[in-house]
């Protein structure tokens, strides 16, 4: 599960600039005046093999009691609550302020791991200018420059250091052959009801009210000798519909649960059809390369006309999940649940499929012989050989010349050939092209 880093500090100390630097993006708006960021902003970052989630927050005034500053403080407190490590950002050039002391007092009371960084420290002598920040009582001060990228790698290593032991430990569940199955979907779609039916007991609170489940709850389960870890996630609402702070906390837990799962069962409500939220969740599952099984719940509660509308909406709004098996079920009446397990096992097996290089290369050459890639100007892509580059999801690496000209349509054509041969049902398949370097480039210059 990805660790969460929260950026906290008073206004205009460079939190959003640091956020963009940590996520290698420009997602956070940056300008040279205070109070630009007001809500929490999430982003993904990676350094080496370590991935993490970063939360950007607005200027923090812990004692604010009214107006927009009170709302911003509430957002920051929630970001701190859901984080694993807090990065407290101060302004190296402006020095310590009373507001810095208030924030430091708040963070000390929480006792959460905290890294104190002095931003805008480019060209400054560390020992002289930064000594005053030790009076905040948060330990050593680490100088950085978010705008210039100085000290960022060391900061990430430092922030993730308390979590390294957890990251380096092998997953016990994987060692034991346990399949992590996350049940995801919008609020009130029947996730907890389905898991209760599987377990044969009222293990999870199921109630006809959206948002009953607040956290990602894990339950061990065994079926026909295969061990599972069932993860009931909180429903993902549309961003504009997420009001309560505790629900925003649930969103992070849900996203982390999807990332850590081996297979995701995506539930859709037949009475409401495929909505924007369903497409958003499906896109997130696909983006993370998780194996997926699609289930339409409450199928008994709709008539024939509505059933046809649901099927059409799945075809038009979720075309990128054509590789996944779809099941029509009723968790409450226990209808259609048996075949779900075979699809879950099939998706898990496909995600960890091993593909030999000779077979992949043969399939590639047969595909090229059947249909050559489209010529791009003077060049026609030449595909030479293929090998497997990873599992869960399966990755196929294709080598050749001028492969940057391979069209998306031809990529899909190749994907279909590989899927059919290896029976890759229920898992995304990623194809990477690697063009060989031209040995004559330097000689011709």
From TrEMBL:
Keyword terms, alphabetized: GTP-binding, Nucleotide-binding, Repeat, Ribosome biogenesis
InterPro entries for this protein: G_ENGA, GTP-bd, GTPase_Der, KH_dom-like, KH_dom-like_a/b, P-loop_NTPase, Small_GTP-bd
Residues of the EngA-type G domain: 3-167, 179-352
Subunit structure: Associates with the 50S ribosomal subunit.
PANTHER family on file: GTPASE DER
Function in brief: GTPase that plays an essential role in the late steps of ribosome biogenesis.
HAMAP family cross-referenced by the UniProt entry: GTPase_Der (MF_00195)
Family per similarity comment: Belongs to the TRAFAC class TrmE-Era-EngA-EngB-Septin-like GTPase superfamily. EngA (Der) GTPase family.
The protein's name in its UniProt record: GTPase Der
């Amino acid at each position: 599960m990805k660790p969460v880093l929260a950026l906290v500090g008073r206004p205009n100390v460079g939190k959003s600039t640091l956020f963009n630097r940590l996520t290698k993006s420009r997602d956070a708006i940056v300008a040279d005046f205070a109070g630009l960021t007001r809500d929490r902003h999430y982003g993904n970052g990676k350094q080496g093999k370590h991935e993490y989630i970063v939360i950007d927050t607005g200027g923090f005034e812990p004692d604010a009691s009214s107006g927009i500053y009170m709302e911003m403080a509430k957002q920051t407190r929630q970001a701190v609550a859901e984080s694993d490590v807090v990065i407290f950002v101060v302004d190296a050039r402006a020095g310590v302020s009373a507001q810095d002391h208030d924030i430091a007092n708040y963070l000390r009371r929480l006792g959460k791991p905290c890294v104190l960084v002095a931003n805008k420290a480019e060209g400054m002598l560390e020992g002289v200018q930064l000594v005053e920040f030790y009076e905040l009582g948060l330990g050593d001060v680490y100088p950085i420059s978010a705008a210039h990228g100085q000290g960022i790698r060391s900061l990430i290593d430092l922030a993730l250091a308390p979590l390294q032991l957890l990251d380096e430990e092998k997953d016990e569940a994987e060692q034991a052959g346990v399949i992590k199955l996350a049940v995801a979907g919008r609020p009130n779609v029947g996730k907890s009801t389905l898991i209760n039916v599987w377990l044969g007991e009222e293990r999870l609170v199921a109630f006809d009210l959206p948002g009953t489940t607040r956290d990602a709850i894990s339950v061990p389960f065994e079926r026909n000798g295969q061990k599972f870890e069932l993860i009931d996630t909180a429903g993902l609402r549309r961003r504009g519909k997420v009001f309560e702070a505790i629900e925003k906390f649930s969103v992070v837990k849900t996203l982390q649960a999807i990332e850590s799962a081996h297979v995701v069962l995506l539930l859709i409500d037949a009475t409401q059809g495929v909505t924007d939220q369903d497409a958003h969740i499906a896109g997130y599952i696909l983006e993370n390369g998780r194996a997926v099984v699609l289930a339409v719940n409450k199928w008994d509660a709709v008539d024939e006309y509505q059933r046809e509308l649901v099927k059409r909406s799945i075809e038009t709004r979720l075309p990128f999940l054509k590789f996944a098996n779809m099941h029509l079920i009723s968790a409450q009446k226990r209808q259609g649940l048996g075949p779900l397990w075979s699809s879950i096992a099939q998706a898990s097996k496909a995600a960890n499929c091993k593909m030999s290089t000779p077979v992949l290369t043969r399939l590639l050459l047969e595909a090229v012989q059947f249909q050559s890639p489209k010529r791009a100007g003077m060049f026609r892509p030449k595909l030479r050989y293929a090998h497997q580059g990873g599992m869960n999801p399966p990755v196929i690496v294709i080598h050749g010349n001028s492969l940057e000209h391979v069209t998306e349509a031809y990529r899909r054509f190749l994907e279909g050939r590989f899927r059919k041969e290896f029976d890759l049902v229920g898992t995304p398949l990623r194809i990477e092209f690697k063009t060989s370097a031209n040995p004559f480039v330097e000689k011709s210059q």
